Amino acid sequence: MPRATINKVAELAGVSIKTVSRVVNNEPNVRQSTRDMVNKAIAELNYRPNLSARSLASHRSHLIGLVYDDPSVYVAPSAGYIFALQQGTLNACRTANYELLIHPCNYRNKNVGRELQSLIEQARLDGLVLAAPLSNMPRIVDAIAETHTPVVRLSPGHQVSNEYSVGTDDRQSSCKMVGHLASLGHRRIAFISGHRSHEAVGNRLQGYRDGLRENKLPYEDELVVAGDNSLASGEAAAEELLALEKPPTAIFAANDDMAAGVIRVAHRMGVEVPKALSVAGFDDSSLALQIYPSLTTIKQPLSAMGERAALALMGKSSVSNGLEIIPSTMMVRESTAAAPA
To answer: Are strands 297-299 and 329-331 parallel, antiparallel or unpaired?
Structure first.
């Protein structure tokens, strides 16, 4: 079957080719009734705009890039985080007839800046969505800035001058999780912190301390162990915490992978979760529902964050600067319960 053309769409809708072009490019000043007729014709003919022709006409590639940390470099990669970001950015691209280019990269590579500059030049990207932890690494951010390509940073961990960026309330959400555990009667609540390169994840440690203070619980150095966001580091931290002379009755990890590591160790040591030990995480990755017991965690609005970032790059957002915060949600499941007597 021959590919539908813009001429066929115009003919079926009873409008000019220029009107079809304006609808396809989401340009203003087109009556809604006309827009509906054109979209109906597009759907009927299964019309797909020619990206090369659109680029020549508008001097834009209609291509957005999503750059994130390559999960394949981890021993136990978690794809849920990336999938949610892709879903959100794709939703935005579809509404504006843009395409999405995804690019995992290893931020540990000293040449990653040149790699991204080459990607931008070759693909002629209209903009870039930069996920954490790359979003708070100056050498990567500066390399992109040299290309003068619009970029929206996700979870930069702090206010980024006058640039527009998207994040969530990591600190406040972590504080609420500590409050939830305290409300269950837990008084020795441990925390496993994330990799120091993740500034937003670092805010969760601050939230943990806020939560202790709000619930009049003391901060104890022995109850805070550093992890690196991996399941293995969660296991190592759990072994250290559960070996204490007075172990915690609850462990809150800065991400779900490390929380899963805690549950693995608890099972291995014969510590029943949640009867003897409550465990909580952060992210609400797919892993949170796959492990037993299901994990109490903080659900990050990753899809919404990706969508907001892409819409901003395409000029479809009313917010143009500052850090936009999309709140997270607490998901209470089977891994937390009242503290043991």
So the answer is: antiparallel
- Among 54, 48, 53, 57, which Cα is nearest to 3's? 48
CB 335 within 8 A of CB 296: yes
Alpha-carbon distance of 8 to 4, in angstroms, equals: 6
C-alpha–C-alpha distance, residues 215 and 178, integer Å: 8
Instruction: Record the pTM.
Output: 0.79
Residues linked to residue 99 through DSSP beta bridges, in sequence order: 63
Structure tokens at 195: 């990799």
Return the amino acid letter for 202. G
Assess contact for 297 and 280: CB atoms under 8 A: yes
pLDDT digits (tens, 9 = 90+) for 8-44: 888 888 888 888 877 877 677 788 888 888 888 888 8
pLDDT digits (tens, 9 = 90+) for 169-216: 999 999 999 999 999 999 999 999 988 777 778 899 999 999 999 999
> Measured between alpha carbons, how far is 96 from 311 in angstroms, rounded to an integer?
8
* DSSP notation for 225-273: EE--SSHHHHHHHHHHHHTSSS--SEEEESSHHHHHHHHHHHHHHT--T
| Range 32-38 contact pairs with CB under 8 angstroms and sequence separation of 24 or more | 37/13, 38/9, 38/13
Name the amino acid, one letter, at 12: L
